[in-house]
Write a structure and sequence with these properties.
alpha+beta; Aminopeptidase; twelve-stranded mixed β-sheet; 38% strand
Length: 226
């Protein structure tokens, strides 16, 4: 496999290759494809994703069939996960069909080696449990919980995801999130991971950038509800 560089275009290419499509439906039920789309459900919620859509894709038909598909089930809602580099006509079409956009997040990707570091400040970070490829991490100060985060290794890819980062408001800006990131990165590298990724809000982006992750695009969830 060709080594992945740090430029945004190369990292975005790795993201599109490894993290879009069927891999996003791991653990889902009723998984099916419709042309370029992958659909499935997690309990009472549906989910739709795809790799990059070809310019000739019949977007109106794909959207109409997807809505009809989930409307015929008992799901209460479904999410269509879009990326900012998708075909420009997709978002307006989803809106026209009644889907509502959620908050836009930034796609962050970077080499795991750049995110390594020592836990800074008066906190101790430890792995608290695991469920398959997902591990839970806790940051504590004198035995008191001050932050949490998850690491999700994506099987069959060079990636692991950084998710669920939360820090006690009284402990923000004291290196807790950075310490959680570094601890998860060290664990990921020890388990063969080469790249980290995260969908982040503006509050987390500067910390992830300091950890070597690069903004490669955006993602917006579009939600249909009954």
């Amino acid at each position: 496999m060709t080594p992945v560089g740090q430029d945004a275009a190369t990292l975005l290419g790795a993201y599109d290759e490894h993290l879009r499509g069927p891999v996003e439906l791991a653990g889902a039920t009723d998984v099916a494809t419709d042309g370029p789309l992958c659909r499935g459900r997690f309990s009472d919620t549906g989910f739709v994703t795809h790799r990059r859509l070809a310019p000739g894709a019949d977007l109106p038909a794909l959207v109409a069939r997807t809505i009809a598909h989930f409307a015929a089930t008992d799901v209460v809602e479904f999410e269509w996960k879009t990326r900012g580099h998708d075909l420009p006509g997709l978002a307006p079409l989803l809106r026209a069909h009644g889907l509502v956009p959620g908050p836009e997040e930034t796609l962050m990707v970077g080499p795991v080696d750049l995110a390594l570091g020592e836990s800074a400040g008066p906190v101790t970070v430890r792995r608290a449990g695991a469920d398959g490829d997902t591990t839970l991490w806790l940051a504590e100060a004198d035995g008191v919980l001050v932050g949490t985060g998850r690491l999700e290794v994506v099987p069959g890819t060079p990636f692991a995801g950084l998710w669920g980062g939360a820090v006690d408001p009284a402990w923000r800006h004291r290196g807790v999130y950075r310490a959680l990131t570094a601890a998860r990165a060290r664990y990921a590298r020890a388990h063969g991971v080469r790249l980290l990724h995260s969908d982040c809000l503006p509050t987390s982006r500067p910390i992830l950038e300091r950890a070597g992750l690069v903004a490669v695009g955006t993602t917006t969830p579009w939600v249909w509800r009954r």
